[in-house]
Amino acid sequence: MGKITNSSSSSIDSSNHPSISSATSSLPQPKRDLSTDLRLGLSISTSQPDDSSSNSREQPSDWPSLKPLLRCTIAEKGNNRQHPTLFVKVYMEGIPIGRKLDLFAHNNYDSLVRTLSQMFRTTILCPDIDEVLSGNDHVLTYEDKEGDWMMVGDVPWEMFLTTVKRLKITRANQC
Amino acid sequence: MTYFPEEVLEHVFDFLSSHRDRNAVSQVCKSWFRVERWSRHRVFIGNCYAISPERVIARFPRVRALTLKGKPHFADFSLVPHDWGGFVYPWIVAMAKSYPDLEELRLKRMVVSDESLELLSRSFPNFQSLVLVSCEGFSTDGLASIAANCRVLRELDLQENEVEDRRGHWLGCFPDSCTSLVSLNFACLKGEVNLGALERLVARCPNLRSLRLNRAVPLEALHKILTRAPQLVDIGIGSYVHESNSEAYVKLCNAVLNCKSVQSLSGFLEVAPCCLPAFYPICLNLTSLNLSYAPGIQGNELINLIRHCRKLQRLWILDYIGDKGLEVVASTCKELQELRVFPYDPYGGGNATVTEEGLVAISMGCPKLHSLLYFCRQMTNAALINVAKNCPNFTRFRLCILDPTKPDHVTLQPLDEGFGAIVQSCKGLRRLSLSGLLTDQVFLYIGMYAERLEMLSIAFAGESDKGMLYVLNGCKNLRKLEIRDSPFGDIALLTNVGKYETMRSLWMSSCDVTLGGCKALAKKMPRLNVEIINEKDQMMENSHDDGEKVEKMFVYRTLCGPRRDAPDFVWTL
Questions:
Q1: Do residues B441 and B465 make contact, with C-beta atoms less than 8 angstroms apart?
Q2: Which residues does the UniProt record annotate as the domain F-box (chain B) (predicted)?
């Protein structure tokens, strides 16, 4: 009966976990000595007390109560190596240098439009919702697999992902 | 007195499928005891250390199916060291000599070596079904022996095991003559599989109903497999990544259309969500959907998928579905019986998760709901009272609030009243897990109302020994009690010691019981094993005084006395 090397990165021997013996402690994670931090003038993370993402110690593997396989799967979500991507070029009218954007990182048109608005510091309007199109507003268009330029938003998101080749932000009064 | 031939008795007993019924029947009189023991073919042993294999064989000489459970439930959360015990090898050795007709073996939380699997595969010519749940200790070499030697194997079901993957060709070890497979689940394996061998295996097993693939089986292979096995009822998808307009995807869509019997879907271990629409046609008939391993399916794709699943009875998802998503579930899945919502980001801040509102929505929309596992960040008494009113049929209610002592976030009161409402309303409740800020009051309610309760999980709850005593004195049907990080000490442990012989086991870790208390328990109750688990310091017997608190204690009834295979860090008092 050989010992199995555990390839799961999040499973740690429970003897590494500082045991919380007092029942009055309200958190499963080890408490930081904040008084020492204060004296040394270290900045204290203002995140929630149970946010251990800034803690260099490994997450305790016995809370919350999750089975190791599930815990692993969830831990891997931050690992983007295997996550599929769909990067497309995005140009804004009048600006020669374009950007690139991963469409798989978004779930819907709202998310896409919000991100692009931030990226290009402009208001991008949805044609069916926002009626008034003035010269200073922009709309989002895309080139599809057939080479045609189309308005973004007409087809279901999933279908859009299958035909989009590149994006362009154009002035509203041209549509 | 009427003479009742034993053949008739045996025939009647054949209709008794539940173990409890059979146990009851065997106690009526000597002749019924005798007939029952010779005719019992299925045995369930909830704690492998409660009895020895030899005694089982002596009592039941003609067993064909055995279920064995090893480690306590908290082992799932890394609270029990790997080497604690639960070895299946001695059982297989004993059965190899005495049970030539063994057909089925089902193991949970046991240590299974390759040697055990090899011996198993060679000892039972009629062996048909191997189910391993949360086990460890074996590699794909062990699976290869099962594949190669079990001539009439119908079921190989590996659920959430830790398997050392030696990248062998275990799938190729199924001989060409093997055509009997009905169920094959290897989703928990991490390594490559021989895709050609898999495809050929599927092609020659016309009775295959359930197939759960692992991550290494890509989309391109999936359509071939589905084409060969359109009769599948349960599919676990491995990898599901590629571009949606490629040829493989189109072929997959067609293959899926042909699978008219699928009722259960799981997996999607790697996902390009834009390809999900291929599965919409089978969503209509789905009764079971498990997306808890699919963090790649989010937001709209998830909701769109669920909207197609009107007949769903079981749903396992991740909590980023959010309350809005749960409302969609509530309005779509009217047949829902079991819901599990797992945390996507347990250590992070408050990204989109579910709250008490989602739970209330589900309780209002799904009247048939009886089994729940719900991870969330906040809860209120009002919501729990509401849920209790809407769903009085809960048999399993497990709530896990990620901050373990969080009160009702609106009133800042403990959640005693909420859980109290649950146990009072749900008269059939058999399993309960508590969380959040809880005083002794909740245990008073549990002791008073939870008459059918069999398993109770407690963490960071209670104020004094009274809490635990309410439960021990009140819950008549309690079988398993597991407690961690709660202020119960020796008085709670020792006041009602007789209770433990009516239960399968008691687990207490990071509580206030002392070594002296445990010794007293062991002394009073010789038919209990009182195990102290102390990994840090193995010189237990010399250097500790009785006043010291015990880190982990596991108590269980047994007919065999202290076990002989305990590792150094386990001390049986």
A1: no
A2: 4-45
Domains of chain A: 87-171 (3.10.20.90)
Total-model pTM:
0.79
Rounded to an integer, what distance in angstroms lies between the CA atom of residue B299 and that of residue B283?
A: 18
> Lowest-pLDDT range, B135-149, B195-209, B297-311, B498-512?
B297-311
Chain A residues touching B486 at Cβ < 8 A: 23
Chain A closest CA to B283's CA: distance in Å? 17
Q: How far apart are CA B557 and CA B445, in angstroms?
A: 27
The complex's ipTM works out to 0.74
| Single residue among B432, B466, B500 that ends a domain in this structure | B500
Query: How confident is the model over B222-248, as a mean pLDDT?
Result: 83
Query: B265 near B297, Cβ under 8 Å?
Result: no
- Candidates B242, B344, B510; nearest CB to A21: B510
Report chain A's terminal Cα–Cα distance, integer Å: 71
Question: Which CATH number characterizes residue B248's domain?
Answer: 3.80.10.10
Rounded Cα gap, residues A159 and B322, in angstroms:
24
- Tally of domains in chain B: 2
**Up-side HSE of residue A96: CA atoms within 13 Å toward CB?**
0
Mean pLDDT of chain B: 91
Best mutation site among A65, A79, A111, A155 for testing chain B: the one with the most B CBs within 10 Å?
Answer: A65
Task: Among B500, B527, B556, identify where a domain stops.
Answer: B500
Model pLDDT, residue B337: 97
Which among B162, B349, B535 has the least Cβ separation from residue A48? B349
Least confident among A90-104, B83-97, B200-214, B472-486:
A90-104
Interatomic CA distance for residues B320 and B249, integer angstroms: 27
All residues of chain A having their beta carbon less than 8 Å from the beta carbon of residue B137 are 1-2, 4
